[in-house]
Specification:
With about 280 residues, the protein is mainly alpha-helical. The chain has one domain (about 1-280). It has 13 helices and no strands. Helix 3 packs antiparallel against helix 7 (about 140-170) and helix 4 runs antiparallel to helix 6. The relative contact order is 0.25.
């Protein structure tokens, strides 16, 4: 139950975070935006993590594991930003929200039981994603293909990094693990920004929104990490994937993005399947 509640908290935080992306993303490069978000989130987390008594459990192996986790998570979020810049929320969010399929698969590999209901719900998620993607008509074929590709990369990045965060949280304290992963992600994105000579000025111009996004992003990441200390941590990944539903509804209500009946049905199928996975 605690894992599920932490996942729902993460879903709300990330849903608001992704809605903010869609509202401000047009004026800056995705890497520049996320670099600022990582910086602000890390600064907000630092005083709490510094006071944590769990640093003694951070061995060299755990440190390296957290660094790799942070880089993979950063790749997933960067891909999410790229997907939201290219395509509409109603197309991107359900695809990104499908990462619990891999989370459940990881749990099965660790020895958790998965019956027919789990696999039927998983098939429902895949079918719903196909419906939403086929129903999209607001973008050109090229932009739609690019949005789908980046959304798939984001889903893979989330699934793998969340699994690794859960494993790290079983060996060390939540706050140090989250901070190390975030610093590693910041370093990785910084290298990319410098290598590509990406202009940071457009991102600096909207720093208040990025500060909010940093707080929302690190809050969701911390909630999923904490779930690693409770039973069935994969439920947190499943529940957190409903962030897409929050984002879609906010975009429909405030950005006036159209939502066809077919796409609404597909989204319901996706998130209905996710909900069933979370209750198994």
């Amino acid at each position: 139950m605690y894992s599920l509640l932490l996942g729902l908290l993460a879903a709300v935080l990330w849903g608001l975070h992704d809605f903010t992306i869609r509202s401000i993303a047009a004026g800056a490069d995705a890497a520049a935006l996320y670099l600022m978000v990582l910086l602000f989130g890390g600064v907000l987390l630092l005083p709490f993590a510094a006071l944590s008594p769990g640093w003694g459990a951070i061995s060299a192996g755990v440190l390296g594991f957290c660094v790799i986790t942070g880089l993979i998570y950063a790749l997933g979020v960067y891909a999410l930003y790229r997907a939201f810049i290219i395509g509409p929320v109603r197309l991107v969010a359900p695809i990104c929200g499908a990462f619990p399929l891999l989370s459940v698969g990881f749990a099965v590999a660790r020895g958790q039981e998965a019956g027919a209901v789990v696999w039927l719900a998983s098939l429902a998620v895949l079918a719903g994603i196909a419906i939403v993607a086929q129903g999209e008509s607001g973008a050109t074929q090229g932009s739609r293909r690019g949005a789908i590709t980046w959304a798939v990369i984001a889903a893979l990045g989330f699934a793998v990094s969340f699994e690794m965060l859960h494993q790290a949280a079983e060996q060390a304290a939540d706050l140090p693990v989250t901070l190390i992963a975030r610093v590693a992600g910041f370093a990785g994105v910084s290298v990319w920004v410098i290598w590509q000579r990406i202009d940071l000025k457009p991102a600096f111009a909207i720093w208040p929104s990025l500060l909010l996004m940093g707080a929302l992003d690190v809050g969701g990441m911390l909630a999923v990490t904490i779930a690693g200390g409770f039973a069935r941590p994969e439920f947190a990944s499943v529940a957190s994937s409903c962030f897409g539903l929050v984002t879609i509804l906010l975009a429909w209500r405030f950005l006036h993005e159209p939502l066809t009946r077919l796409q609404a049905f597909g989204a319901v199928v996706v998130f209905g399947g996710i909900a069933v996975l979370g209750l198994v």
